[in-house]
Specification:
It is a single chain. The chain is an alpha/beta fold. The protein has 2 domains: about 200 residues, Periplasmic binding protein-like II (D-Maltodextrin-Binding Protein, domain 2); about 100 residues, Periplasmic binding protein-like II (D-Maltodextrin-Binding Protein, domain 2, 3-Layer(aba) Sandwich), CATH 3.40.190. Helix 2 links the parallel strand 2 and strand 3. Helix 2 runs antiparallel to helix 9. The relative contact order is 0.17. One of its GO terms (biological process) is transmembrane transport. Belongs to the phosphate/phosphite/phosphonate binding protein family. One of its GO terms (cellular component) is ATP-binding cassette (ABC) transporter complex. Pfam families: Phosphonate-bd.
Amino acid sequence: MDLKKTVLTAIAIITIGSLAYFMKTAPGSNSIFEFINIDNVFNLKSQSDFTLPDCGFKYSRRLRFSIVSYSEPEKIFKKGQAIKDYLEANMSLEVKIVVLRDYSSLIDLLKVGQVEVVWAAPLIYKTVKDSINYNLLLKTLEGASPYYEGAIAVRKDSGIKSIEDLKGKRMAFVDEASTSGFFLQNKMINDLGHSSLTFFSEFEFVGSHDRALQLLYEGRFDAASVGLLAMNVAGVDTDELAIIAKTPKIPNAPILVNNAVDPATRARIYELFIAPSKHRKGAEFIKTLDEIDRFSGFTTADTSEYEF
């Protein structure tokens, strides 16, 4: 294993370890989460070997809702708890939050289809939508918009004003499968006739939008590729950062439902997400999501939107 892979593996282990510790130390929270890391937790020989532990439940009794560990542990906990509390308040079932360590684990989980509902990522859905047993239910609203942008951020005191100024600099990307943390920015660089492999003196996939901004703020990288709405990070004074480029807009994160889920349950989940204000704890649910990541609700979606 080369040095870059060693560093990235260490980052991923630290991230999920911190998240697991936070869950254990948060009062009353240690029983609602499962942690999925396809390679390291289950030690699988192949994808076909993978099944989640058999809990012997019907969808009317229990439901797994999957989210990716894309951010600070506290944010992931609050988001998962909000989803669980809201769904359980309005459905006759127990909700288990499945936390995926990274985007690669999300791809694997979608392919094996062992979770009922998935808060996915746009690029991943675009890539695997024709080969998975999930249907698109809705997409998120972020800052009241059904679309979002990626950005390239730098420190204001860096003297960097444009993408061309980044030649020979150090770039922090989020993940190879991140739409707004790599894919869109990399395409912008390609469209200018460059390759990230040779354009930057150094680049790394650091695991999350928050971490990319933190490393930029600390001066360990000259630029960070992140989602534009991810600019609010604890410990980072964003007044010291500047946006030098924005990507084209793309649809927000899709909410996917396993085709094996019965129609009545699927319809109920749709009702609860499309109009939270009409249901118990709905206002509190949206308020919590807005405080975490500026999620302001959910709206209709079409697979054709994910052909960017």
